[in-house]
Amino acid sequence: MIQLKDIPQDYLYCFATAEACPHSATCLHALAARLLTESGQTQPSVIQSINPNHAQHPPKDCKHYRDSTPVRFARGMSRLFDDVPMRQGKQVRRKVMACFSCERYFYYSRGGDRLITPKEQEAIARVFREAGISAAPQFDSYEDGILW
To answer: Would you say which domain of life the source belongs to (predicted)?
Structure first.
């Protein structure tokens, strides 16, 4: 169950009603807005929201839609390169590092300080397949969470 404290700071809120938007039941932006309005907790004094005019007439595929279904994150890569042949190690490592938006994210993710998104996991698996490595990438652990 998502709580108000779980919503990232500066997250976009969407106040479209279920009648106005067919996606409001499963959209994280709409869920965040419902939590905000229904909560008895201290509320932020300033929030960012999707334009109410857009929210009342959302297009078929809203560009702001974010699915509220939990996803499986990986944590840690301490043994990721154990099955990589030594002659390919340097090249595979460089390509895996490129799967992250910056080098620092690679190091944080490797140590388990940052969760590895499903998209990043798939990119790493693709690097392994393209290198001809039959073993799937091994992450230290997995956990379910919300992809805000």
So the answer is: Bacteria
Which residue is associated with the tokens 């091994």? 138
- DSSP letter at 26 equals T
Nearest of 56, 64, 81, 53 to residue 26 by alpha carbon: 64
Q: Is 145 helix (H, G, I), strand (E, B) or coil?
A: strand
Q: Is residue 143 helix, strand or coil?
A: strand
For residue 67, how many other CB atoms are within 10 A of its CB? 12
- pLDDT for 40-75, tens place per residue? 877 888 999 998 777 666 666 788 999 999 999 999
Q: What DSSP element (H or E) covers 12?
A: strand 12-13
Domain locations in the chain as residue ranges: 4-56, 71-145
Nearest to 85 by CA among 128, 144, 51: 128
pTM of the model: 0.83
Place of tokens 């997250």: 11
Q: For residue 31, which of 52, 16, 48 has the smallest C-alpha distance?
A: 16
